[in-house]
Amino acid sequence: MTMDAAVAVIDDDEAVRDSLAMMLSNHGFGVCSFASADAFMAVIGANNLPSCVVCDIRMPGMSGLELQRELAKKWPMVPLVLITGHGDVSMAVNALKAGAYDFVEKPFAPDRLIESIKSAIDQNEHKRNQDQEIVRLSARINELSDRQKQVMDLAVKGLSNKEIALSLKISPRTVETYRAWVMEKTGARNIADLVRIAMRLEENGSSIRPRPRSVGVLEDDQSL
Predict the structure, then answer these.
(1) Residue 7: which H helix or E strand, with range?
(2) HSE (CB half, 13 Å, CA atoms) of 179?
(3) Residue 99 phi/psi, 5° resolution?
(4) What strands, in cross-sheet order, belong to the sheet with 52-56?
């Protein structure tokens, strides 16, 4: 079985590993089991990522905490749920702060673990969809000319067409044309949509601002 769209179970105790695998299989999850975090890391790859990793925190070789650090460096998109003993809670809390999705204390009710795994997978899928949308929006913005980006930047700041025209020293009619192109290329239905798109891009480190350039030349007769 490949790990794609599966839950990876990592535990050095064979009985625990088999029990978890059976429980998850009974709840409809694909399961891949590993006796150590080292064995798991030896096979994980960009084309073979699990939907979630469930790992005991204390194991010979690479511990659950060390696995969390390795995943954070190499595969941060893979959620990790740690299984902890009572004495490991403070360690698990530190792992949570460092990026682990959740920890479940032993002995745990099956529903508690299933709920955590489902939540981790759902949240990760939601984030992946958001990331893909940001990529699409960034691509659309990159298709805009510098002047179109200037018009969009000023429009989302609340300037009217006349104010944008004065700022860029172009005619209001040209601003209207640029603005129409911006709306079409970004898929925005109105200025509120355009503002939301700009906010999402800024929050994710993308900018709608054009490269610095001198303005002041009328562009009414130039290509849009």
Answers:
(1) strand 6-10
(2) 22
(3) 130, -10
(4) 30-34, 6-10, 52-56, 80-84, 102-105
Is 31:24 a contact under the CB 8 Å cutoff? Answer: yes
Q: Among candidates 68, 26, 32, which has minimal Cα distance to 49?
A: 32
Average of per-residue pLDDT values in the chain:
85
**How far is residue 143's CA from residue 208's CA, in Å, rounded to a whole number?**
11
The closest of 100, 92, 39, 57 to 75, measured between CA atoms, is 100
- Mean pLDDT to the nearest integer, 31-46: 93
Longest dimension (CA), the chain: 76
CB atoms inside a 10 Å sphere around CB 198:
23
What separation in angstroms does the CA of 209 have from each of 16, 22, 125, 144, 167?
55, 53, 30, 11, 15
Judge whether 37 and 12 are in contact, CB under 8 Å: no
Phi, psi of 8 (to 5 degrees): -90, 120
| Global pTM value | 0.65
Helix axes 161-168, 172-186, angle to 10 degrees: 110
| pLDDT for res 214 | 44
Average pLDDT over residues 125-154: 86
Mean pLDDT of 76-88: 86
Integer Cα distance of 41 and 44 in angstroms: 5
